[in-house]
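User: Structure tokens for both sequences below?

Assistant:
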Amino acid sequence: MQQWIRKLFVERSDLFLKLMDERWARTEELTKGVTKILSDFGITTGNLLDLCCGNGRVSVFMAKRGFRAVGVDLSRAFIEDARKKAEEHGISQQATFLEGDVRKLREVTRGIAEPFDVVVSAWTSIGYSTPEDDLETFRQARELSKERAVLFVVETMHSDHLNLRFCPTSYGEIEDIMLLESRKYDPIASQLKTTWTFYHKHGEDLEFVDRIEWSLHVYSLSELAKLLNVAGWETVAAYGSLSTLQSFSGMTSLNLVAKAR
């Protein structure tokens, strides 16, 4: 495991949890789109695998829609928060959260009796390691899924967007935290390197909290579709948004739908 992955998701999970909590407000609309697409495949309920589930937002909302969700994440803090949120939403019996590395899915999910009908990878949970690691994750997900299973890769960054709208710096505020972002993008290697600097806000003053540098392999739609094909998934559609079923373009995020083959 790369050191920055451990620092961001384990050692400073308190900071990343704030970022994930911000996305809960938009997750109900996302899962409405997911269930609508699944109905077109004849899937209205079943077992769902949530890769790199974070603190469980996709699993929780899909469980509320009748699915039995299994979320996997390497961060114990994320898993504990996901279990807490599942209880708060009244679906703790429909959602199971497992601490573990998605690159070792067979081992992590051992004991899960039934294969999966749906697999979800949300919010740029790919590219943190190598394409070979992502291939292995999706290959194992296919092995653990039914013949008619559907895969979603949603709310994901892609290289066309960076080539069109790359922004080297930005900032945001979350509760009492200010986040400054500095980015460098190598379009030849499709590699994005980002520095996140966190500050606590005290009135008009800022107090330094931490600085984390992380890197990401950014896929194009065609590159990701080819990787998934090798892993046993056939890409059938791409959208700019699943909540509105907006068409995919270089100006949108990437939301990919694939079926088991």
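Moving on to the next sequence.
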Amino acid sequence: MDNLTPEQRRKNMQNIRSEGTQPERLLAKELRRRKIYFAKHVKTIIGKPDFVFRRKRVVVFVDSDFWHGHRTRCVMPKSNCGCWEQKIVRNKQRDKQVTRELKESGWMVIRLWERDIQRNLSKSIKKLICVL
């Protein structure tokens, strides 16, 4: 059972960011430090990637462990499990579809997990630089 009222839960959910998350800020700061130029959240590209490197035709998505269903780090809430499971399954399906469409359009797609960026930023940057 949820320990928040519906109004409290609604406000909580409204405060969850889809842009400007801590992992995104860490990655952006390091890219700027290395003088690697990028665009953020380009709405004209399907899936609205977190980072876009237009000249190299590379897009980067920073996926949340919970919202994108990391196989070991996604901890399901104890209440309303069925709804949450459906939501995360739909998110994963949409991620696959977006990745497929971008690749078909000639983009290289990189997906980084939030925890990997937070725990080992240099490894995530190295992975990105190898592609660029």
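User: Anything stand out in the second?

Assistant: The beta strands are 39-40, 51-53, 58-63, 108-113.
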